Amino acid sequence: MPLTAEQRRHLETRLLEERERARRTLQEYDEHLRTTPRDDSGELSAMPFHLADEGSDVMQRELDATVVTQASRELEAIEAALDRLYREPERFGLAHDTGDEIPFERLDAIPWATTNTARR
Predict the structure, then answer these.
(1) Structurally, how many domains does the chain consist of?
(2) Is residue 116 situated within a structural domain?
(3) Which of 16, 25, 32, 81 could connect to 112 by a Cys-Cys bridge, CB 3.0–4.6 Å?
(4) Using one digit for the tens of pLDDT, what is the confidence trace for 22-60?
(5) DSSP for the chain, written as a single string
(6) Do the beta carbons of residue 98 and residue 117 sit within 8 Å?
(7) CB neighbours (10 Å) of residue 78?
(8) How many whole angstroms separate alpha carbon 48 and alpha carbon 62?
(9) Averaged pLDDT score across all residues of the chain
C-alpha cells in the first residue's frame, strides 16, 4: 500500500530532524577540529609529553574524521531523500532497485532508506 499523505508528512518531519542532527554534528566537529591538539589537551607545548599521548591524539583525530565522514554521507542521503519527496511524493518510499514498497516502519527508522533491507 502506498504511503498516505500523513505518513509522508511524518517522514518529511523525520528527514528535517535528521538533517538538523547531521548538520549539528558536522558543525560541532568543524569547531572541534579547528582547535589545535595543544588547545584540546591544555598543554603549553605542541610536543607530546609521551609517545602514547601522540598515538592517542592521532587515534582521536581518526575517529573524529570517521564521524564527520559518516555525518556527511547521511546528510547527502537525507538531502537526496527530501528532493525525492518534494519532486515525486507519490513515488517516495519505493525501493530504487526494485520499485517495491519500503515498509513505513523502515522509513520511520531510516527515512532516507532507498531499499527494503539493510545493506550487509
Answers:
(1) 1
(2) no
(3) 81
(4) 999 999 888 776 765 555 555 555 555 666 666 677 787
(5) -PPPHHHHHHHHHHHHHHHHHHHHHHHHHHHHHHS-HHHHHT-SSSS-SSHHHHHHHHHHHHHHHHHHHHHHHHHHHHHHHHHHHHH-GGGTTB-TTT-PBPPHHHHHHSTT--SSS---
(6) no
(7) 23
(8) 17
(9) 85
Q: Which residues, 6 or more positions from 56, have their beta carbon under 8 angstroms from its beta carbon? A: none
Q: Say which residue the cell 528527514 belongs to.
A: 15
Q: Where residue 31 sits, what CATH number does that domain have?
A: 1.20.120.910
Alpha-carbon distances of 114 from 7, 29, 41, 88, rounded to whole Å:
16, 27, 42, 14
Cβ atoms of 84 and 12 within 8 Å: the answer is no
> Which single residue is written with the C-alpha cell 527530501?
82
Q: How many residues does this entry show for the chain?
A: 120
Kindly state whether residue 92 falls inside one of the protein's structural domains. yes
Q: Do the beta carbons of residue 90 and residue 37 sit within 8 Å?
A: no
| pLDDT tens-digit map of 62-109 | 887 888 899 999 999 999 999 999 999 999 999 988 999 999 999 999
Under 8 Å between Cβ of 15 and 115: no
